[in-house]
Design a protein that fits this description.
heteropentamer, A mainly alpha (267), B alpha/beta (259), C alpha/beta (316), B: 259 residues, alpha/beta, Rossmann fold, 6-stranded mixed beta sheet, 3-stranded antiparallel beta sheet, 33% helix, C: 316 residues, 5-stranded mixed beta sheet, 10 strands, 38% helix, binds adenosine-5'-triphosphate, binds the ligand Cc1ncc(C[n+]2csc(CCO)c2C)c(N)n1, binds magnesium ion
């Protein structure tokens, strides 16, 4: 019944759809810029409050080397922190789902740790790990860790009770139940969490750079804030946000590639 | 007179099940009693809500009776379940939506210490048996209701449990397919000697398949009587045209109606 | 109470002061003037809005939420002006910057030359000050190992840095060091910057001069009173802001007074346009003006100082 | 069939369970304290790096009035920010689910806004709102907004396709579909999001107090950092974390009260 | 010769449905054609997977035919749906798990501009009709499979659509309950004059209920023939014992088997 021409057609339609989505996203961001420009012009917002997008655009072009060379450290910290935080969160979530007691005892501890302000832990981390990548990755990990923990704990429990009974009758081990059922049931929650974590890990990396660093977009942001280099400040934030948006979007893309069996809701 | 008693596959010793809800208790099964022999084909017939599914779920160790004892193959139901001696076709097909038809049938081979186990019939052959050759790659949401049910049947047959619990397995199938699968099931049962506990709403199906039929009543679920079906094996579909068959069916019908 | 000339029930004019940071001995004179009723005598009812690590006082003043701001240091004023913020400095409390480089006696930094090759822990706001120090003394940024840290002195204690930077009034931190710790202030290192700079919008400078003059007079009185009655002033400060540690603030008060009244000076608030010019030169050399460098009279005005000259001279 | 004695029994069992859960949670937090104590003792950590729990405990007792009086402003900011952020997020999520195009265009904008570091917006907020409660609530709202948006958008789409068909045949309006179906389907996602938001709003309120304040736990944290009062610093963080933990737990409690129809997974 | 043609309730004009999947296309329904009159009781009989559910879903505007035309009550299916003239009992009971049995039955009264509408029979009465009096407050997961299906039936009857589509509504019910509900359905049909399109796997049920029965074949789903059931109305259960009935059933069975 499989029909190559048809499959090709489906694929090309999907590609067109993806293209449209990207265009719409760009339109949205473009709209934001236009709105920004309009607000600045119409209300005559002083440049020292919000610079005009034209100035910031010029800064983006002029300082592109500076911005790019500072993007990499931040990107590395964010991605590494994202990985570490999510691996930890997923690991803990798996523990929690299999040992109710552990969940009840450790979840408050996780909440507790999560609420320690970064500014307060950063100095301790710097003392322990020095000022290299490590403390930044840890901070980015700490920030992206919690949403994933909460969501995945919930997701791993979002299993159809009938599927649980099926697995029980098949005498599946907890491990098998996990890999054959829970994992799939948790995917919507997991991907939501990863999207949240993608953005928070970028935030985490930026914040971490306030302490103990001399490179990265966070460092640029702080410096340009204190030096009143408003257009550089905005340019740095824009680069960071664009990176976060791409990171976020790539999680969405991975979700589409992984979850192939779902009935998609009609528009 | 000495009778060598056949060994018991499932012993339900005056079991009762009460569910507690936020609003009060529901007595789903009241003092049900029967012994099912190894190798027997035993059916449950009764009005909707009389506790048939609950009964199967007790045998499969999915529900604990609030009263009475259950033993399966001489031990606890939980042990039998853990030894993977129990197979179950659920009333709802319960397919995993992220697995294709074929992958769903393969599931029992991948879990429960059965990895790499060879089934007597291959998953593909079983899908063909239930009329789904060519649809191996379809996901559950792409299948019709009856097709999903047939995948679930194939899944239950892919390993060879000692005790097979079937909860209205052919309910969503047309008569032709149903007849065919009835015959296939009987063949498999005879060839393998497994014990089958079968829930159905079709009196004809119960008579055609079973050696004994338990007739139940509802509110609360109670055993009314157990009826022997002395039709000789192997049976073929035309046995349904015999007077003995019609008589048995009528008798069961009267039993169900409580007359 | 920032719009126009709101007066309260006692007929006093409400004035809000945006502090440069959490209120501490940097506002010793103002708190004293409040306590002693000096502002009241001038017809003002002054209240202090605390700042914080992420507060830029110029934003608060430009936004019209406070009437007068206190800037941490002169660059925050002239860089803000160069960005177009319509503000001007009219008084300076600390004649040199109480920002210092602190080190331990066995690895001391007494002169700029000593800092070469050292690991220097600065907080985010201080990086630029360190850069200024290096540039003014002919060194490159790469001659030191800069580590940005949070405000705590711990890295110096644990040996992770050789030099810690901060305000000399941060007694809470500094008291952790051995008695004979080494201090090198910005001024000693050849960077002449002002600190605790009072500024207002150009508009208030035009339309509200009397208030600013009254404020300056009363503040000066407060600072003089605090100089003479330091213990009393610190006590009042600490009881008003109960999370301050009175002992530490007492030590810090002595220090800050040295910056407000350097070398027995008997004048409060003076500032020199030439010094402003010099400070901007430094920043210009560092390439920190994105926009055209403003002229001095855009950055500061001596009018208030001149009009309040008498009140700003000690009455000893 | 309802049976009062039985209902009472079920209730009392539930109460016992809740009590046990609280005990386990306390045990978990207690374990954290013991671990802290052990690490400090065994490794001989200097008090100025990490104070001993005994000192911090003493500080908690001694400064209880100071801590409590500073808890309220932070709690108010956190709760107000939580409300505002979640109302906004849920509103946007509803828009996104009903207008696919809006989602595609505005989601990147939301990601973009989410990644703006607080330090960078702080000056603008101060210019516009001064340093009162408003900027703090806005910052807490900004921080709690995003996870809810992501989760609720996903949750509102997690509707069984068959239920969608049912509502379509009943010719239900979008509004009805929303209130009768989507809302319920989204609840697991919503409550996960609210749990995440509960903790982030507390973080947000703490960080917001960096923007200038004379009260609140964030103020205490800055103040005690400035004064190098390490045990007060820790005590303030502990009070903030305890508040966050309670906030988190009360969302869990509300979930239990709202979602009464779910089959709970057996332990 | 003049015949006054009865108005058409559902016109399926050579419709085909092709589903596209990642693996290729599935022709679910091929060139199906029939006209169903207003007030008719029309049944679909055919092997599992022949497109019966798909057909109902076309009429309810849940699936668009890839070829051919559908009209319902003289207009587009979507218009009829929006005018709330279509009722549907799904093959799966499709209850909302957060609503009790009673609340599920009340759902149609709360949506689609029907707020405050009074149904001919109250939701409570309908639950009693399907044998669920006393279980109004139970949540779906506390009900047996057959009970859930009965709730879905009650839900479909609570408003009075012009066209009622029923997809194996009695499939999970025991014969006694099924017989009773068959009679009730016929009574309601006669009293209200609604059009019913009914999918079943039971030949006897099709004959007992319908005026016409469409027999379909699978792979792809095609209409084989439409059989008239000239049994007079009102019908009672004992009509099944008549020779005419048996003959019709046998004829349909042969049709299904493709003989
Ligand atoms: N989890 C539960 N909570 C409360 N009551 C339940 C639960 N499960 C089943 N029941 C009740 O127990 C009774 C028996 O249910 P069961 O599913 O065993 O019936 P059944 O004989 O299989 O019916 P059917 O033929 O309709 O499938 C019913 O009244 C049902 O409402
Ligand atoms: N969404 C879908 N995607 C792909 N194929 C589908 C989809 N829905 C139905 N089909 C296919 O269309 C055919 C007809 O399905 P349909 O559900 O109409 O059958 P049916 O006659 O109702 O069968 P049953 O009696 O088993 O319910 C089947 O082959 C099925 O696999
Ligand atoms: C460059 C520099 N800027 C800010 C601070 C933070 N800070 C600590 S004490 C103090 C003055 C209080 O009035 C300030 C602003 C610092 N240490 N160094
Ligand atoms: Mg059942
Ligand atoms: Mg179907």
């Amino acid at each position: 019944m499989a029909d190559d021409a048809h499959v090709a057609e489906v694929k090309s339609r999907k590609r067109r759809d993806a293209f449209k989505r990207v265009l719409t996203a760009l339109a949205g961001l473009g709209g934001l810029v236009v709105l920004w420009y309009a607000v600045v012009k119409i209300f005559g917002v002083e440049e020292y409050i919000v610079p005009s997008p034209v100035d910031v655009g010029r800064e983006l072009v002029d300082s592109r080397d500076l911005l790019l060379s500072n993007l990499w450290p931040t990107a590395i910290e964010a991605v590494a922190g994202f990985m570490a935080g999510n691996v930890l969160a997923i690991g803990l979530a798996i523990l929690f789902v299999h040992a109710k007691r552990a969940e009840e005892a450790l979840f408050p501890v996780a909440v507790f740790i999560r609420t320690i302000p970064i500014v307060a832990i950063a100095p301790i981390l710097v003392i322990i790990f020095g000022t290299g990548y490590t403390p930044k990755v840890i901070i980015a990990a700490l920030i992206s860790f919690f949403p994933t923990l909460v969501n995945v704990v919930r997701g791993l429990q979002a299993v159809d009770p009938q599927a649980l009974e099926l697995m029980r009758v098949l005498s599946a081990s907890k491990r098998e139940l996990f890999f054959k059922v829970r994992l799939y049931a948790s995917l919507p929650f997991l991907f939501s969490a990863l999207k949240i974590a993608a953005t928070s890990s970028v935030i985490g990396a930026l914040v971490a750079e306030w302490v103990g660093s001399e490179q990265g977009l966070g460092y640029l942001i702080i410096q340009s804030t204190y030096n009143f280099q408003t257009s550089l400040l905005y340019a740095s934030m824009i680069v960071a946000s664009l990176f976060a948006t791409l990171f976020f979007a790539s999680i969405g893309l991975i979700e589409r590639l992984v979850v192939t069996w779902e009935v998609s809701e009609e528009p | 007179m000495t009778t060598t008693k056949a060994p018991t596959a499932v012993n339900l010793d005056h079991v009762s099940v009460e569910f507690s809800t936020d609003r009060g208790k529901v007595l789903a099964l009241d003092d049900y009693h029967s012994e099912i022999e190894v190798g027997e084909f035993f059916s449950l017939l009764g009005p909707s809500g009389c506790g048939k599914s609950t009964l199967l779920r007790i045998v499969a160790d999915l529900v604990n009776p609030t009263d009475g004892e259950v033993s399966v193959l001489g031990g606890k139901a939980s042990e039998a379940r853990k030894r993977r001696e129990i197979g179950f076709v659920f009333q709802d097909s319960t397919l995993l939506p992220w697995r294709t038809a074929l992958q769903n049938v393969q599931l029992p081979l991948e879990v429960g210490g059965n990895k790499g186990a060879k089934s007597s019939s291959s998953p593909q052959d079983l899908l063909a048996l239930v009329g789904l050759a060519g649809r191996e790659e379809a996901y559950p949401h792409e299948l019709s209701g009856g097709m999903r049910q047939r995948v679930a049947i194939a899944r239950a047959l892919v390993t060879q449990p000692e005790v097979l619990l079937m909860d209205e397995p052919f309910g969503a199938l047309d008569e032709i397919t149903r007849d065919k699968l009835n015959e296939e099931l009987l063949r498999i049962w005879q060839e393998t000697g497994i014990t089958i506990v079968f829930v159905t709403h079709s009196i004809a199906e119960a008579v055609f398949l079973s050696q004994r039929v338990a007739v139940m009543s509802a509110h609360p679920g109670r055993l009314r009587e157990i009826v022997n079906v002395p039709l000789p094996h192997p049976r073929h579909l035309d046995v349904r045209d015999t007077a003995q068959f019609t008589e048995l069916a009528a008798y069961l019908r009267r039993g169900l109606e409580g007359k | 109470g920032s719009d126009g000339d709101s007066t309260n029930s006692e007929g006093l004019r409400d004035v809000t002061l945006q502090a440069n940071f959490l209120v501490n001995v940097s506002q010793l004179g103002e708190v004293t003037a409040i306590e002693q009723g000096f502002y009241q005598d001038e017809g003002l009812n002054v209240s202090i809005t605390p700042g914080g690590p992420s507060v830029d006082p110029t934003s608060s003043v430009v936004g019209g939420h406070t009437d007068i701001g206190v800037g941490n240091s002169s660059p925050s004023i002239f860089l803000g002006v160069s960005e177009g913020r319509p503000i001007k400095a009219f008084t300076v409390a600390a004649q040199t910057h109480p920002y210092g480089f602190f080190s331990l006696p066995d690895n001391p930094v007494r002169t700029p030359a000593d800092i070469v090759g050292k690991k220097v822990g600065v907080n985010q706001t201080g990086v630029i000050l360190l850069e200024a120090l290096l540039a003014e003394n002919g060194y490159k940024k790469s001659d030191v190992d800069i580590v940005t840290t949070s405000g705590e002195i711990t890295p110096l204690l644990t040996g992770q840095v050789d030099v810690w930077t901060g305000w000399v009034i941060q007694q809470g931190q500094l008291k952790e060091l051995p008695e004979d710790y080494v201090t090198m202030t910005l001024a000693e290192a050849g960077v002449p910057l002002y600190a605790l700079i009072y500024f207002a919008t150009e508009k208030s400078l035009k339309e509200d001069r009397e208030m600013l003059e009254a404020f300056t007079r009363a503040s000066a009185r407060g600072w003089f009173y605090a100089r003479e009655n330091t213990e009393e002033a610190v006590k009042a400060l600490a009881s008003r802001y109960d999370s301050l540690n009175e002992e530490d603030e007492a030590v810090a008060a002595e220090k800050i007074l040295d910056f407000v009244f350097p070398d027995g000076s008997d004048e409060f608030g003076e500032m020199d346009p030439k010094l402003w010019e010099e400070q901007m030169d430094i920043y210009d050399r560092l390439g920190l003006f994105d926009n055209p460098r403003p002229s001095v009279d855009k950055v500061m005005t001596s009018e208030i100082l001149e009009a309040t000259k008498d009140a700003r001279m000690g009455d000893t």
